[in-house]
Each structure stands twice: as structure tokens, then as C-alpha cells.
Amino acid sequence: MNFDFKFLTIEHIDLIVDMVFTLDHEKISKSVLRKRFKEMFTQNYECVGIYNNTNLVGVCGLWYMTRHYSGKSVEIDHFIINEDLRGNGIGKKLFTWLNNYLKTKDVETMELNTYTGNTASHKFYYNEGFKILGFHFLKTL
After folding, report:
1. pLDDT range class, residue 27, cuts 50, 70, 90
2. 138 belongs to a structural domain
3. How many CB atoms lie within 10 A of CB 75?
4. Gap between the Cα atoms of 127 and 97, Å rounded
5. I want to staple 63 with a disulfide (CB 3.0 to 4.6 A). Which of 9, 75, 108, 137 is the partner?
6. What pLDDT, on the 0 to 100 scale, is given for residue 115?
7. Backbone CA torsion sign across 54, 59, 63, 67
8. 33 has pLDDT over 90
9. What's the alpha-carbon Rg for the chain, to the nearest Å?
């Protein structure tokens, strides 16, 4: 299989929303996701599409910031690959591509959150050199 990584823009919002909708554990409506992604694109956010030929088979969001403990950083967000294609090395290829791309932006660190029950992702991220730094807490207002 041949995979390419291309940046998605606000014009691709419906493709992104459809992909992220399959990941969301609380099933936020597509209309709410669409509204949120429109706002995200006005912030320090990029979205990478993972393509197999012309088919979008995954997405990965990138949030840029500078943090006191990690310097210039990118937070990997909503990284998802079609379930039937997982385990084919796509994630490894994406992270190789990301490492090269992020170096051109002088990014010092990558960080991410993953759901506690997603043990397959934990193993993958450990193998990619990530370590657990803490807990992610969320409070709805």
C-alpha cells in the first residue's frame, strides 16, 4: 500500500469531521464538530490527511504552542486511522513524516493524550519514544 500525507484545510472540513466522528467516544454531533473545527483552523492548528491513493484513510491534528516545561511543542490530537487499516505501519510512517516536518518548524517536543482504555495506542506511542508525563484532567463548564 502506498500512503501520502497532505495538509487538509478548512475546505476539507467535512472529510475531517466524518473521520473524527468515528473516533469520538461521546458522539459529539457532526454540526458541533464542524463548528469547532472551523474555529480550530483560526488558531495554531494544522490537520494532516493520510491518503491511500486518493482515499482519505486517516487524520492527525497538530496544535502548536510554547510550554515552560517542553519549549516549542506540538500536541498531536485526534490521530485516527481507518480501523481496517490499523496494524499496517501507517502510524509509524506518519510519525517518521511528522518528525521530519516538525524539525523544519523548529519544534522541540511532541505531546499527546490518549484514552486510558486504548491500550493498543499506548504500546504504539511507547514504541515511538513517548513517555507518560502525567494525567489529563477535563472539567465541563
Report:
1. confident
2. no
3. 18
4. 16
5. 75
6. 86
7. negative
8. yes
9. 15
Q: Say whether pLDDT at 12 is over 70.
A: yes
Nearest 5°: CA angle at 58, between 75 and 64? 20
Number of domains in the chain: 1
* 8's grid cell: 487538509
- Amino acid 24: pLDDT: 65
CATH number of the structural domain spanning residue 119: 3.40.630.30
Cell of 65: 504552542
CB 86 within 8 A of CB 70: no
CA pair distance 14, 23, nearest whole angstrom: 15
> How many CB atoms lie under 10 A from the CB of residue 60?
24
Sign of the CA dihedral 133, 135, 140, 141?
Answer: negative
Residue 86 lies inside a defined structural domain of this protein? yes
Which structural domain, as residue segments, surrounds residue 26? 3-127
- Please name the helix (run of DSSP H) or strand (run of DSSP E) that holds residue 52, with its range, or none: strand 45-52
User: Is residue 116 a part of any domain in this protein?
Assistant: yes
- The Cα 51–Cα 15 span in angstroms is 12
- With beta carbons less than 8 A apart as the criterion, state whether 130 and 112 touch: yes
* Residue 136 counted as domain residue: no
Mean pLDDT confidence for 123-134: 93
